[in-house]
Write a structure and sequence with these properties.
The complex is a heterodimer of chains A (255) and B (334). By secondary structure, chain A is mainly β. Chain A has strands at 8-9, 12-15, 17-21, 24-29, 35-41, 44-52, 57-60, 64-68, 72-77, 82-87, 93-97, 103-108, 114-118, 121-125, 135-140, 146-153, 156-163, 169-174, 179-184, 190-194, 197-201, 207-211, 218-223, 226-230, 238-241, 246-249. In chain A, the strands form seven sheets. In chain A, strands 7-8-9-10 form a four-stranded antiparallel β-sheet, with no helix packed on it. By secondary structure, chain B is mainly beta. Classes of the chains: A mainly beta (255), B mainly beta (334). At the A-B interface, strand 1, strand 2, strand 3, strand 5 and strand 6 of A face strand 17, strand 20, strand 21, strand 22 and strand 23 of B.
């Protein structure tokens, strides 16, 4: 699906290489447990074939896709081709993509383990993250060497940022009015549920609300600038386009 | 058969007719045993009045039908003084579309009651604005009145243009969805919701919605006009020795022909030799031979550079198709 065209750049007499391809918008974890590529422009999406079924948790960046099935963690490339698979405890997982795009951090909700994963390497357990709290709802890596997490603490829900190497707390803030499910992006945007609404809280503190047809059941990062909101079985997930501040529905898998 | 029954009733009850009068409470319309009571519009409140000069008793008030009932009626026997009246409602619970009938009995008088049960007319509404490619919109099916009973229908979406899987309903996906109309409601439901979302895709053509309920069908037709290429996002990045530009867009005519790039410095001055143009007709024609994604595409271009790329502040992209040219620009980032 890619073709090349030639042109010249500026004063330098060099050829420009161009290709035409499918506009990938991210990945989608459908309510039926399937994981699919998602293509789209403007307000329109097309979902690809199921690359995996029985997926419990998923997230994707421009380069990587992470999928947690009942007993395995899978790392896939942007075309959803399997790159690596490791045994994993049961239950859900949270994901954070690291700067550079080749590696990610995984949090297993049931066992409370936090690991760094990368294709071609065994997962490495992170040890200095006690400050993040016990029950982590969402994680992200806002800067190289940093990990941010939204977690339940005795005092409520809190957003903390720590240095991955030492576990030193860089900053933390209580998140009043925030309830799960939650998604956190590397750019510092926070998306959380409030009844039948999704709230987008940008890094500068500005909030935008989006009415939803049902209470959110799950949230995950589905691309560099999109957060998916799962609405449970039989309902089309909603894609929150962060830059445009728009909530769009994703077609089901029946097409 | 009906006429004969009414005639017999009228003869048998001539004495009572002189004293009891049956009227519709709201309109005042008078019913005699030789007229029929049409309840096609739904339930009705009726009034029995003693129009005679002597006291009498209302001893029998019943309806012989599985589809009609009496609600709010008096406890019998009910003495009725001259000019006294009593009201009751006739309710309708049809089992199916079509004619439901029965006999209303008041003392010795019989009244033929019927209802021609039909679904109210319905229409398809898809937003207040004209539809265009690249949109999500909602569709509703509204009825002219309340449904007399529950019904099940099917909403189909047909498209006359080239293949485009993005032209589909949201939620279940695909191009047909069942709907229901609940008794007493005037709007169809899709899996419980009063509207269904859909995508207009990225291909010019005509979308035809057809809602079918029983033997009734209603259509709504929406034209998606050919348009210039719509650029959703331009991402320009500076790297060592090169500039990269990615344009996410759709061409609903699938006739993209020319692309032009222009780079600018922070003062808005065009850099280098200015505009760089390329004819991409053949490349796009080949890409659009595979209709899996309709008219959507991403165009990625890389421009080798010698010198400092940090002076490149923004990029302008122009794309042309059979409907004309469109232009958009974006800041370059690292």
């Amino acid at each position: 699906m890619t073709r090349h065209i030639a042109a010249a750049y500026l004063c330098v007499s060099a050829a420009a290489l161009a290709e035409i391809g499918a506009p990938r918008a991210g990945c989608v974890h459908q309510g039926d447990g399937s994981l699919r590529a998602l293509y789209g422009v403007a307000e329109v999406f097309v979902t690809g074939q199921a690359a995996q079924t029985g997926v419990v948790s998923a997230a994707c960046s421009e380069r990587l896709v992470l999928a947690k099935t009942a007993r395995a963690l899978e790392l896939r490339d942007s075309e959803l081709r399997l790159q690596a698979s490791w045994p994993a405890p049961r239950g859900e997982a949270r994901f954070a993509f690291l700067a550079g795009g080749a590696a990610a951090i995984v949090y297993y909700a049931q066992s409370g383990e936090l690991l760094r994963v990368e294709a071609g390497r065994e997962p490495q357990h992170l040890t200095h993250w006690d400050a993040l709290g016990d029950r982590i709802l969402a994680i992200a890596s806002p800067a190289p060497g940093e990990l941010a997490a939204v977690s339940h603490t005795a005092g409520g829900i809190r957003l903390a940022r720590v240095a991955m190497a030492t576990g030193a707390v860089l900053d933390q803030v209580d998140l009043d009015g925030v309830a799960g499910p939650v998604a956190l992006t590397a750019a510092g945007a926070l998306v959380y549920a409030q009844g039948d609404e999704a709230v987008l809280r940008r890094a500068d503190g500005q909030e935008q609300r989006f009415p939803l047809p049902a209470q959110p059941a799950a949230m995950y990062v589905m691309g560099d600038e999109m957060v998916a909101i799962g609405l449970g079985q039989g309902r089309a997930p909603v894609a929150l386009k962060l830059r445009q501040g728009r909530a769009l529905r994703i077609p089901g898998a029946a097409q | 058969m009906i006429a004969r029954g009414l005639a017999i009733a009228a003869v048998a009850c001539s004495c009572a007719l002189a004293q009891l009068q049956l009227t519709e409470a709201q309109t005042g319309a008078v019913y005699t045993p030789d007229t029929t009571i049409d309840l096609s519009a739904g339930e009705a409140t009726l009034r029995i009045t003693n129009v005679g000069s002597a006291n009498m008793k209302l001893e029998r008030l019943e309806i012989l039908s599985a589809y009609f009932g009496i609600a709010g009626g008096p406890v019998l026997p009910l003495p009725l003084a001259p000019k006294a009246s009593v009201e009751f409602r006739i309710t309708l619970t049809p089992a199916a579309l079509g004619t439901s009938s029965g006999w209303l009995t008041i003392n010795q008088d019989y009244y033929f009651v019927f209802a021609d049960v039909t679904m109210p007319a319905f229409r398809i509404e898809a937003g207040s604005q004209a539809l265009a490619s690249g949109q999500q919109a909602n569709l509703t099916i509204r009825f002219a009145g309340k449904a007399p009973l529950q019904g099940n229908g099917l909403l189909r979406m047909d498209f006359t243009g080239k293949g485009d899987p993005a032209i589909a309903f949201l939620g279940p996906g695909g191009r047909s969805v069942p709907f229901t109309i609940e008794k007493g409601e005037d709007i169809a439901r899709f899996s419980g919701e009063t509207s269904i979302g859909f995508q207009t895709g990225t291909t010019a053509g005509t979308i035809i919605f057809t809602a079918t309920l029983g033997e009734e069908a209603e259509q709504a037709v929406f034209q998606l006009a050919p348009s210039v290429i719509s650029m959703d996002q331009i991402r320009g990045t500076r790297a060592a020795g090169e500039l990269r530009v990615a344009v996410s867009a759709f061409d609903n005519t699938r006739t993209a022909s020319k692309v032009k790039f222009k780079f600018f410095d922070s003062a808005g001055r065009a850099l280098g030799s200015g505009e760089m143009a390329a004819d991409v007709t053949a490349q796009f024609r080949q890409y659009f031979e595979h209709p899996e994604l309709g008219g959507m595409f991403v165009l990625r271009a890389t421009f080798p550079v010698t010198g400092d790329t940090s002076q490149v502040d923004s990029v302008e992209v122009e794309l042309a198709n059979s409907a004309g040219a469109s232009r958009a620009s974006a800041k370059m980032t690292e």
